[in-house]
Sequence to fold (567 residues):
Amino acid sequence: AIVGAAKQMHTIVASECTGCELCVAPCPVDCISMPEIEEKITNWKWKYPVYTLARVH
Amino acid sequence: MKKLFKFNGGVHPSTYKTLSNQADIKCLPMPSRLVIPFKQHAGEAAKPQVKAGDHVLKGQLIGIPEGFISGAIHAPTSGTITAIDEQPVAHPSELPDLCATLIPDGKDEWVQLAPIDYRDHTSEDIQHRLRMAGVVGLGGATFPSNVKLRKSKYKINTLILNGAECEPYITCDDLLMRVHASEIIRGAEILRHVLDATEVLIGIEDNKPEAIDSMRQAIAELGFKFDVVAVPTIYPGGGVKQLIQVLTGLEVPSEKLPNEIGVQCFNVATTRTIYRALEYGEPLLSRIVTVTGNVRQPGNYEALIGTPIDELIAGVEKLPDTNGYIMGGPMMGIRLPSVEVPMVKATNCIIAASDKLFPPAPPALPCIRCTRCVEVCPVELQPQDLYWFSKAKEFGKAQTFSLFDCIECGACSYVCPSQIPLVQYFRFAKSEIRMRALEKQNSDKARERHEFRDYRIEREKKEKAEKLAAREKAALAAKEKAALVAKEGAAASATEPPAPTQSEAGIPKE
Fold:
């Protein structure tokens, strides 16, 4: 979500960003960056277990 | 003799309790540094109240609770805060978290404490004090205890104290009950009073005869009518739903809480902490930790929260083939990413592991549908089907089979003949489902916002068009009116006598 008055600097509400990237192209001063969401303890989740199976002859 | 009930399944692993329950609780020397994470409890992290360079006193509030489910964080001793930054913590993700690093000044100076008489205070006031004292469940789940004292539409009949300690190796609650039984019993009376419970049951596994005797003696000395019940030693008999079932025969409904059947349960160590928080005004600053496993002198230590694990185990002389550490028990504990992580409120035990004690997991074989896992599941779930669905990422089906009732006790993986790490699949499925529910919530909100924006733009366009139309109409009407007036004026001037010419009007003729 981006809010701002006409012809003034706008503010990006980062918590509501969905990552659609539609804002990057129209920006006339090229000041929007889209960093990847870092994995922190708050958004960490258990990974899909990958285990080597035993070879059965 | 109180009639006991049974819960389905359960397993009997070797308990290894005698390694650490033969000696008294020992004290540790003051650690060289303390690293105190701001999230040591279920719910939201505490907000830091101090910054680097601040001098703090023992028991001073350094993190204020944020949100409904949260707990306070305090300085375990007096000293200087040297940093508020991300430090490695004991978490299965091996990611760092925000912590306060405290260098003790050796003086151990207390902050001003405010003890109260619990009988003179309302339940809400006591709940607030416990929240600000950072009291959380010390059985391992670290749920803020004040939330469990809230009045709800369910009347609490039975207060249960959990002294079962069913996991192998862990003996901290055993020792606590032997040494501090009277403080636990006094805490139980406070809880009984606040909850207005009719009966108090204390469940202790029958492999702890000294603890049972000690608690019964304290009850007799204090003159209360509490019941110490020796429950059969079985894993996971200390799980809250299992203990409630054994002591009362009542089953907590699926995905519901014990208070809905009129029961509330607290761990014995939490109960003692509640007593000390109210009677002495002391916040939660330390706890008893069992240090055991591949060490020469296993035992229990009274340790300050935030003690780095390497300093905690310095006195036990680990054996040379130690290759890692487990925080918690062998069934539900986590491997520590490094030995420099700090101890937290949930740290009930540190087990030094070696290849002999904890051989590396053999490779898993395919599931043969033997249903040994179903036989041992204490919640009467079907682990083999949950495994099938979690593996195939069929999360809807997994939820239909009550995935979220799984307590992750590990009894199923313990008995699996194919050595499949079942609990890892369930944890993956649960966290995946939770994340997807959260993402769906966010995307629903985003869609609503987008739809409203479209509607707003449409509305503005329509209003503009209407305004324009109205203006044009008004202009047209005005033009027509003007034309009409002009026409009328011309018509009127045609019928009137002609206006006097300039010569007749009085301008003197030349």
About this structure: The radius of gyration of chain A is 20 Å. Chain A has a mean pLDDT of 86. Residues 19 and 34 of chain A are 8 Å apart (CA to CA). The interface with chain B takes residues 1, 16, 18, 39-41, 43-49, 51-54, 56 of chain A (CB under 8 Å).
